[in-house]
Each structure stands twice: as structure tokens, then as C-alpha cells.
Design brief:
homodimer, DNA-binding, mainly alpha, elongated, 223 residues
DNA sequence: GTCTATACATGGATAGAC
DNA sequence: GTCTATCCATGTATAGAC
């Protein structure tokens, strides 16, 4: 994904050139959207190793040069994808998790989100971006924000679930939230390889039963 | 990572050419080992997106053409890396998990394995291979075997832990084992991005406490 | 803002010398 | 079995026309 670097680096971008990122202005906004979508599609079907300005352009029937005009380089575009997806995800999770008050509900929301994200293919995109982030600090930074927001939201929901419960002071909520977020990621990666769609479904069904049990125990231990 | 494919495909490899895989014979065995090591190092420091025959050669001070002579193509070499690492991992896990009889021991083994694998960098390699596997069925196949073996070993250990326990008939061992394996993977990916080494340590410490508690409950519920 | 054309670099893969 | 040299495909990035 990288060749040379005869770019003048991060100069101040004097006047009309190299809008390192979206100029925020009106015109070309549609093209930028199409570039984002194309990059996502490319990431999804070719993987991070198959991404290039030309490959992205193909996926959106766009001109290869537009990547450089609007984002300076392929990586700039990928960073933008990471940011946008992070925001969308944060909003989705915030909405879904807002009403969660029991473990069973948390599991149900987890399944719903997983199914929706898997169907949309956005977890594939995320895992590919994460793999790419390993060798690109800037991309890593762009992805990291989204992960942190994710973990925080799960943490808050967990806090609500366990509030006024004997477990509240025992269970390390931050750790568990981190584990849950990691588990989500791992499930996607595993699923991408073994192609076993029923596995995750079975897992969630098991968690349904277990969470209902724990909820009952919690209610009896509190009240 | 791919350009053209003017390779005669998987012909029968008449006589002296294109030993699609390691000829198993003596000579050149050392070179093959060095190629494997170089590929691993390359995967680790450049990521799947930065892997190429030339990049691999650089990492091992080898000649680029050797990749094609010994493995037919870059992907063949990566598949070999996946297989070898899978075998090593399966052996390590089998040894470590053999003595596990309680949840606390399982957690302790989990921490030890995670630390060892993280220190060695082999989880980074695995996650990069997994990302690459998404767009390469053959590589996916090579990686999948290792994951399955992994899950199976955890499953067997869990079975032993819960044997003669009220939970044995309630807990879906296969699902939990799959979740544990996924969690391992996810933790590595997360860690690669947020660079927070203490997080996982903290998580394992929490799990130590929880597992000890559950073990006590199990023992009192059985005996 | 978008396109075509083009420079230059890198990578896959092979032939042939050693 | 390993190396050098080489061909050709692909990719990055820019210049300049529209």
C-alpha cells in the first residue's frame, strides 16, 4: 500500500492544492462521499492488502486521481473512513444501549448489534482497518477513538445493569467492558475465517440463558 | 500483494521446477527456514499490507527469487507460516492445558499463554494472517486449522474443569470455548491499537478473583 | 472539480548464469 | 540451490487540459 513518498509532506498547503482532508466546503462533497463508500467496499471485498487508489476507484467507478486531490493519499481516505464509521457506530451503540437495565437486555442488544453490523459488513471493514493500523500510526489513531468510545458505552451500560447490586463493588466494570468489546472484535475475525455463522448465534442463545439466570440471582440478592 | 497471475497454475510440476511447497528433502531446508522466519518478521513489522517477496527477502537478507523457487508465490510462503505457527501453538496449548482442572488454573494458563505469545509477537502475526485470509481462501484454510485445534483444546480443558459439577449440563462448553478463543484474538487486536499493555493484565487479575470465587462455589455445590 | 496522460517506483515472476 | 538480470503489471503521485 506504500511506494515512495515524494510528497512535500505536511506543508501548510499554500492555496489551491492538496486539501489534505475534506475542505468542508460544498462542491465535491458528493465525490468525497462516493470515495468513502468505494473505499469501504474495497476494504470489504479486497481486504487491506488489496487496497490501492486504483482499486478504490474501480469500486466506485471513479477516477484514481480524485483520491489524491481530496485526501492527499490513500491513507488519508482510509483515516476518514475510520472516523466516519467510528462516529456512526458510537451513535448506534449509544442509542441501543441507552435503555439497557438488565444483563439479558445487554445480551439482546449485543446480538442485535452484532447481526446488524455483520450484515452490513462494517465489522469486516473495522477488522481490516485494525490490521492496517498496526503499521500506520495515523490510521491507528483514527481507529482508536472509535474503540475507546465503544468500550466506554459498554462500560456505562454495565454500570447501570449492576447498580444497586452486590456485584457492583466486586466486578471490575472497566475490565469486563474491555473484554466484551474485544470479544466482539474477535468473533468477527474468527467468523471471517471459519465462515460458521451459526456459531455466534448459538453463543448468543447460550448467553441469553445465562444472563437471565444471573439477572434472577441479582434481583433476589437486592430488592 | 498481488499483481498478475501468469503462473502455469497448479500444474503437476513436471520435474525440477516450482516445488509449490517444501520438497521435504534435505538441501535448501535451511533456506526454507530462513524464509519462514523472514516472512514472520516481515508480517510482524510491516503488516499484511506491507508484505511482498522483496520485503520478506530484505528481512532475512535473502534473495527475492527464493520465495518463488521454494514456495511458488508469496502466498504459498504465508500459508506455510500459518501451518507451522498453528502446529507450534497447538503443541504449546496442549501441554499447558493438560494439567488444568480448575477455573483458576485455566485463567492462570490463559494469562501465561497470552503473555508468552504477546512477547514473542506471534499473536500479531496471527492477526495479520487472519486479515489477509479474508481475501485469500487458501490462506484462510491454512489458518483455520489452527484456530479449530485451539478451540478444541480449550473445550477439552473446560470439560475437565466442569466435570462432576452442576454447571456441566448447563454451560454450553463448545460455545464458551469458541468465545474464549475469540476473546484472545480480540484482545490482541485491541492491544495492537490502543497500546495499553496494562489493560490485559488488569483483566486477567480480575478474572483470577472471579474464577477463584466460582471454583469455591463449584466445590461446595459438588463434593 | 474532474479527467487524461505521464513520470517514476515497486512488486511478481521467470530465464539463465553460476 | 542460489544469484543476477530482466519483463511486465500495478501502483503512487503529479501536471496540465478541460
Amino acid at each position: 500500500m506504500s511506494a515512495q513518498a515524494q510528497h512535500p509532506e505536511a506543508s501548510v498547503a499554500t492555496t489551491p492544492k492538496a486539501p489534505r482532508r475534506a475542505p468542508a466546503s460544498d462542491a465535491g462533497a458528493d465525490t468525497r462521499d462516493r470515495l468513502i463508500d468505494a473505499a469501504r467496499a474495497c476494504l470489504q471485498s479486497e481486504g487491506i492488502a488489496g487496497v490501492s487508489a486504483r482499486a478504490i476507484a474501480r469500486h466506485g467507478d471513479l477516477n484514481q486521481a480524485l483520491v489524491f486531490y481530496h485526501y492527499g493519499a490513500v491513507e488519508g481516505l482510509l483515516q476518514e473512513v475510520a472516523r466516519i464509521d467510528s462516529d456512526r457506530r458510537a451513535q448506534l451503540y449509544a442509542t441501543e444501549l441507552a435503555a439497557v437495565a438488565t444483563l439479558a437486555e445487554l445480551v439482546a442488544v449485543g446480538r442485535r448489534i452484532h447481526d446488524a453490523e455483520a450484515a452490513r459488513g462494517s465489522t469486516v471493514v473495522l477488522s481490516q482497518l485494525l490490521a492496517g493500523a498496526h503499521s500506520s500510526p495515523a490510521l491507528g489513531e483514527a481507529v482508536h477513538g472509535g474503540m475507546a468510545a465503544w468500550t466506554t458505552l459498554v462500560e456505562q451500560a454495565l454500570g447501570r445493569v449492576l447498580a444497586n447490586t452486590p456485584l457492583a463493588s466486586v466486578v471490575p466494570i472497566g475490565d469486563i467492558a474491555y473484554a466484551i468489546a474485544s470479544l466482539f472484535l474477535g468473533l468477527e475475525l474468527m467468523g471471517g475465517v471459519d465462515g460458521d455463522l451459526e456459531r455466534v448465534d448459538s453463543l448468543f442463545t447460550s448467553l441469553d440463558a445465562v444472563s437471565a439466570l444471573v439477572d434472577a440471582l441479582l434481583r433476589s440478592g437486592t430488592a
